[in-house]
Write a structure and sequence with these properties.
mainly alpha; single chain
Length: 140
């Protein structure tokens, strides 16, 4: 049976984790939004064709996520990851560490606090993909 002190510590751990998770969600969402804006500003660079009816690269990505990926999908992945990395570089170190910590699925007792761009990018990439799934495209 746990003591009152142990239960309180468990509750504090839960509160701390939920708070960190909420902060991570906030920052990753803000970064994802900035990435979407950057993709919307790319008018002709990565669209599959001029006459597709799509206005920008973001709409092209949304179309492909909602319908079917083109054989060039890897180029879109690289573009998104590069934009995420550019946005992450603008963030202070504690935010990058937070995004790495919460996104890391394999934290053990020897975990060292630090920034791991692969983990942070993966977390934000999945948010960008969720935004693309739910973006309403105008009929083409």
């Amino acid at each position: 049976m746990k003591t009152t002190k142990e239960l309180k510590m468990d509750n504090n751990d839960i509160i701390e984790y939920v708070t960190l998770n909420n902060l991570c969600d906030y920052h990753s969402t803000e970064i994802a939004k900035r990435v979407v804006v950057s993709l919307q500003e790319l008018k002709d660079d990565l669209r599959s064709s001029e006459d597709s009816g799509l206005k920008n690269t973001w709409e092209e990505i949304c179309f492909q996520v909602q319908d079917d990926h083109s054989f060039d999908w890897e180029i879109y992945i690289l573009a998104i990851e590069n934009l995420i990395n550019t946005e992450l570089e603008k963030e202070p170190e504690p935010v990058k560490q937070l995004l790495s910590y919460i996104g890391n699925e394999e934290i053990d007792e020897g975990y060292q606090i630090g920034y791991n761009p692969e983990i942070a990018i993966k977390n934000i990439y999945s948010q960008v993909m969720e935004m693309a799934k739910t973006f309403e495209l105008v009929e083409i």
